[in-house]
Amino acid sequence: MADKINVLIPEETVDAKIKEIGEQISKDYAGKEVHLICILKGGVFFACELAKRITVPVSLDFMQVSSYGDATESSGIVRIKKDLDDTMENKEVIIVEDIIDSGRTLHYLIPVLKQRNPKSIRLCALLNKPDRREVEVQIDYLGFDIPDEFVIGYGLDYAQKYRNLPFIGVVEPEAAEDAEEGAEQASGEEKGDNVE
Ligand code: IMP
Ligand code: MG
């Protein structure tokens, strides 16, 4: 059955905001180069759109992490599923993430990446759920604060679907609960595929 999806942030609004963030980054890094680290899979649509809007030289690298925990809560213990291809040494790094929820993933990851000697490291997130925060994370570039609702689109998935939607949407609560139950049943020893 098709899920009922309501638009939370329309495509034009998301695109305009990404353009704005790209302009801000271009200003802040004038005369420098930026190295974008996209957190897979959710960050990929945002990272591509953002990269197109940055006018200083951009290089890109990708990392995939998964959190141990139950299906819907990240535990904060992060496993690197795919590490970076390139060195971060001496680079002006910006981590590009889809959403900051509990904050646990980035709270863990940023200190780990700092040990790799980047010249600087900042965090850019498309979405933020301040009501869900459990640990402190500094977001240097942010698209939107959103309420505590399960969102999809622009890289964010619901059981691996809807990443390709060009807007931010909300799955009707009934359908979202089914997804959480399904994810719990499907999860084995290593859980938390939803926190990619
Ligand atoms: P945190 O460690 O709790 O901040 O986890 C952040 C990760 O949880 C994000 O990278 C997403 O993969 C996932 N996540 C959190 N909220 C949502 C949501 O509303 N929709 C889809 N994925 C989400
Ligand atoms: Mg993610």
Automatic annotation (TrEMBL):
The keyword Transmembrane does not apply. Gene3D superfamilies: 3.40.50.2020. The keyword Magnesium applies. Pathway: Purine metabolism; GMP biosynthesis via salvage pathway; GMP from guanine: step 1/1; Purine metabolism; IMP biosynthesis via salvage pathway; IMP from hypoxanthine: step 1/1. Residues 16-158 form the Phosphoribosyltransferase domain. Keywords: Cytoplasm, Glycosyltransferase, Magnesium, Metal-binding, Nucleotide-binding, Purine salvage, Transferase. SUPFAM superfamilies: PRTase-like. One of its GO terms (molecular function) is guanine phosphoribosyltransferase activity. One of its GO terms (biological process) is purine ribonucleoside salvage. Residues 175-196 are annotated as: Disordered. It is found in: Cytoplasm. It catalyses: GMP + diphosphate = guanine + 5-phospho-alpha-D-ribose 1-diphosphate; IMP + diphosphate = hypoxanthine + 5-phospho-alpha-D-ribose 1-diphosphate. Its cofactor is Mg(2+). Its EC number is 2.4.2.8. It comes from the Bacteria. It is an enzyme of class 2 (transferase). Its main location: cytoplasm. Pfam families: Pribosyltran. One of its GO terms (cellular component) is cytosol. Purine salvage pathway enzyme that catalyzes the transfer of the ribosyl-5-phosphate group from 5-phospho-alpha-D-ribose 1-diphosphate (PRPP) to the N9 position of the 6-oxopurines hypoxanthine and guanine to form the corresponding ribonucleotides IMP (inosine 5'-monophosphate) and GMP (guanosine 5'-monophosphate), with the release of PPi. NCBIfam families: HGPRTase (TIGR01203). Belongs to the purine/pyrimidine phosphoribosyltransferase family. This is Hypoxanthine phosphoribosyltransferase.
